[in-house]
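Appendix B. Chain record.
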Amino acid sequence: MANFKVGRMAEDMKREISAIIRELKDPRIAGGMLTIVRCDVANDMSHCKVYVSSFEGIERAKEAVKGFESASGYIKRELSNALHLKRCPDLKFIADNSIEHSAEINKILREISHKEEPSEE
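Structure tokens predicted for this chain:
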């Protein structure tokens, strides 16, 4: 039963953190196309790993992580208020390149599909 609660909490935290980052004024965060890929919450809900990805690449995601770390107190407070938590988990932000990787795969698949199309002559 606890796994359902942890999974639901992870999805709720992902949704709320995504909403909170739109309000942040830090130029490291506000400038680009950032996405919260997933949240991993510990079973005792004391820690949460937040994976951040950017369309602009891993370097942009690493820069955004620095902005998130400086705003983690604000994010925790807003998250606690939104989800009505007695104790908000400690947030650890991790840069992830999954969006960039999936864009590369999509590009390769499009190139393959264009090569396989028969020409009409």
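Further analysis of this model is presented in Appendix C.
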